[in-house]
Amino acid sequence: MGKKDYRFTQRPVNKRVNDAAMIYGIRPIIEAIKFGHDLEKMFVQKGLKGDLIDELMELANKTSAPVSVVPREKLNGLTRKNHQGTVAFISPVKYHDLSNLLVTTYEEGKVPLFLVLDRITDVRNFGAIARSAVAMGVNGILIPTKNAAQINADSIKTSAGALTQIPVVRMTNFTEGITYLQSSGCKVMACTEKGTQKINKIDLRDPLALVFGSEDDGIDGSILKLVDYHITIPMFGKISSLNVSVATSICLYEVNRQRY
Fold it and tell me: Which of 60, 87, 178, 224 has CB 3.0 to 4.6 Å from 65, enough for a Cys bridge?
């Protein structure tokens, strides 16, 4: 299947959505998914019905692609072409499956170290976290399907290319991912200023997943109930909290200090 089978545009139609290739039309998007492309975002016209759109939605759900149902005016603002009520943006990276990634990590003889990013939406924070993650040997980053910073030109630039070097897992059911990590031998630790245990006083040498929360309201309560530990960074002076990317870097350094 050649490029001519797809309706792409490289024109930056809406940089707030994504700077990746845009594809439109029900059949072209279906074929793109079947060909192996991951979608960063998909917009579907409200009220759209039919067998083809049902097939598209089923495929999108299987790939955990974020789907927004929008009025036709939104789609017309993205492209003036015959979009048939669907517009999608192809992700610049390939998303990974958590179970396969974890198995590979163990098979390579590594002690798993994962980051779980709960609703971190600022692309600059996301990019900075990815850069630290690569430097500190993180095996993968988990993000939710919705309410997460998109992997686009801005986030890749901020990460200095790190987002193209580290596996990213996108999950519709975030709590299910955390439970799976726990069942696979990973301790899951929520990093929060309200934590009861200081990170430098707890053993971080075992398989581990560190959870960091939203810039606005931290880690969701449902996740806090699931984790094994609530940890915090010891701090001095009158500053009570840190930027999430800074906090992530500090915690990852402590993991490496203990392990190596």
Answer: 60
Give one word for 57, left, alpha or beta, with left for phi > 0 and alpha for psi -120 to 50: alpha
Could you give the count of Cα atoms lying within 13 Å of 93 in the half-sphere of its Cβ?
Answer: 19
For residue 224, count CB atoms less than 10 angstroms from its CB and return exposed for 0-12, middle for 13-18, buried for 19 or more. middle
Other CB atoms within a 10 A radius of the CB of residue 225 amount to 9
* Shared fold status for 3-90 and 98-259: no
User: What pLDDT shows up at residue 65?
Assistant: 84
CATH code reported for the domain at 3-90: 3.30.1330.30
Coil, strand or helix at 180: helix
The H or E element containing residue 208 is strand 208-212
The residues spanned by each domain of the chain are: 3-90, 98-259
Decide: 143 and 169 in contact? Cβ < 8 Å: yes
The CATH architecture of the domain made up of 98-259 is 3-Layer(aba) Sandwich (3.40)
Q: State residue 194's pLDDT score.
A: 84
Integer CA distances (angstroms), 236 to 84, 166, 213, 232, 241, in order = 58, 33, 22, 13, 11
Coil, helix or strand for 140?
A: strand
